[in-house]
Amino acid sequence: MKDSPSSTEQIAGFRIVRRLGDSVWEAVQPELGRRVALRRLEPDAPFRPAAWPDRPGVVDLFAVVDDASGTYIATRFVPGARTFAELSGTRAARQRGWLDQVSAILADTVHGDLTAHDILIDPSGRPHVTGFGRGPGEATADDDRAAIARLRPEPTSPARTVALGAGGVAAVLAAVVLLGGPGGESGAAPAVAAGATAYGSALGAGPVTSVDCEDRPAGGDSVACTILQGALPGRTVAAAAPGRVRAWVVQGVRGRVRLQVLRPVDGRLTAYANAALITIPDRGVHVVAADLEVPAGARFGLEVAPGSEIGIRNGVDGAQTLRFYGPLRGDRRSPAADRGAGQELLLRVDVVPGG
After folding, report:
1. What SS3 class is residue 101?
2. Is 297 left (phi over 0), alpha (psi -120 to 50) or beta?
3. Does the pLDDT at position 13 exceed 60?
4. pLDDT tens digits for range 261-310
5. Which residue, among 257, 259, 307, has the nearest Cα to 278 in the 3D structure?
6. I need a labelling partner for 84 at 20 to 30 A (CA). Which of 223, 265, 308, 332 fits?
């Protein structure tokens, strides 16, 4: 099945309206006139409908259906809701309030596999929990508490902007420092940090396109995502050995973003380490100081808040970007397959060897 189906497409009697995220669609059950959220389950992944509780704050489970393209669950559609992952740029106090409410919803029950995509925030600011029945049957409330703790926002440091001199990266001014570029979307790439290996794009001169996560002009309906370079001929995109990120560099980006160190697990990716969310004020070349652990084989993604822009160079033979709609957190997922061919993500990550 396509990730962007037409409005006339049907799955097991449900008429597709639009895509909501990775393998999730808004759909209608015609005989009942009922709107649902239809989610395709991971192939061969266990699902236990009996583990889905019927209680306030939990999204109703209506049906489990099979189709030639896979197994789907139909749940109550929450109009206007956005996932906790999409709202990662919201102020920390509000995020903590939502998570406190989720803890109350899960009291005396066990989710077992809670991620940022299982928490839906409706327009009134009330959370709803979905995604039950996926985790191992032996999961406990302690697993849920640990998952909520991982979702709590990390403290951030204020960013300062200064101009890069001809010598490259300016001195680090704070724990997280945004260093402004030498001017313009086609500015020269700064020098690689001393002793570091540069992963990803070489940046520099050339055409730059600034778009949102869905390759459109950024606007109020732009979704959040994590984007990374899947392949880029002539450049290395995965860490060859353990190390630490010393700086990351972006071009053509504007808005709230942060670097993510992503670790492959069982053929999927999960967030291993996150930089602080910062605001890039313009589309020039910018260097951000960092200190993040990098395991061997790690990939490097850019978490993009709703309404923000990423820098892309199109028409690069053999290049491929990968996207996760709703940023990656502690969950393990495979990327969407709806776009990214021929794209170079204008992100460079400087990694020094060692732990």
Report:
1. helix
2. left
3. yes
4. 999 988 889 888 888 889 998 999 999 998 899 999 999 999 998 889 99
5. 257
6. 265
Q: How far apart are CA 334 and CA 322, in angstroms?
A: 9
Strand partners, 304: 225, 257
Of 305, 191, 182, 322, nearest to 246 (Cα)? 191
DSSP string, 341-353: BT-EE-EEEEEEE
The CA distance from 246 to 142, in Å, is 35
**What type of residue is 338?**
D
What pLDDT score does 337 carry? Answer: 73
For residue 309, what is the DSSP state?
A: B
User: 230: closest CA among 266, 207, 264, 277?
Assistant: 264
CB 297 within 8 A of CB 195: no
Other Cβ atoms less than 10 A from the Cβ of 138: the count is: 8
What pTM, to 2 d.p., does this model score? 0.57
Looking at residue 253, what is its pLDDT? 95
